[in-house]
Amino acid sequence: MNFLKKNWRLCFGCYIFIYLPWFFYLEKKITMETPNLHIINNAIDDIIPFCVYFIIPYMLWFIYVIGACIYMLFKASDTEFLRFALCLTIGMSVSLLICMIYPSGLTLRPDDVPDNFFGMLLNAIYTSDTPTNVFPSIHVYNSLAVHIALHRNEWFQKHKTFDIASLILCASICMSTVLLKQHSITDVIGASILMAVMYTLVYATDYSRLLKKSRDKEIEMQ
């Protein structure tokens, strides 16, 4: 118990043992042959060009998210860390639940991928990550969650260069999901709406004030 009291932040890391098995189960369970699979791509996606070079910001997502988790673990206040951790764990869980309830897939991937280093990286992503379970985009959701947490952090508030760099990287990652044909614009919008809901619940709502109002009303009624 003493360990948990002192190191409660580390407990959130255990979520990876829930998320990964859940994610890979869905990857095997929901395929392009799954009945009632909803194809997400639309006419707007056909207009968006394919750009293999955006594999770089797409791959940087892993460093961005993991680096932010480490930074928030050691440098954020308890309140900041708790909000960040709740945003990630709840948002990712909701995303996977949506994938279970509303199976989704894409038919956007190009037939010809450039035969170069960038194409090799993209083919590795295509091989390991199927074009199913795409709505909403967890890649986009996590990027938004990370930038919001860093942007609200005191150190980033004082060092605007790093704050702007985080914003640029976040935007580049979001763009990469559609420019690599890994996601539809619908997936990006879905992830953005989910983040807006989570921001309202985790950051914008003052629960202590709501509880106070509720108690005041109970007292008045008595």
What can you tell me about this protein's structure?
Strands 1-2 form a two-stranded parallel ribbon. Helices cover 72% and strands 2% of the residues. The protein is built from twelve helices and two strands, in the order αααβαααβαααααα. It is an all-alpha fold and 222 residues long. It is globular, with a radius of gyration of 20 Å. The longest helix has 24 residues, at 78-101. It has helices spanning 2-6, 8-11, 16-29, 43-47, 55-75, 78-101, 117-128, 138-152, 154-158, 160-179, 185-204, 207-221; strands at 38-39, 104-105.
List keywords for this structure.
single chain; 222 residues; mainly alpha; two-stranded parallel sheet; 12 helices
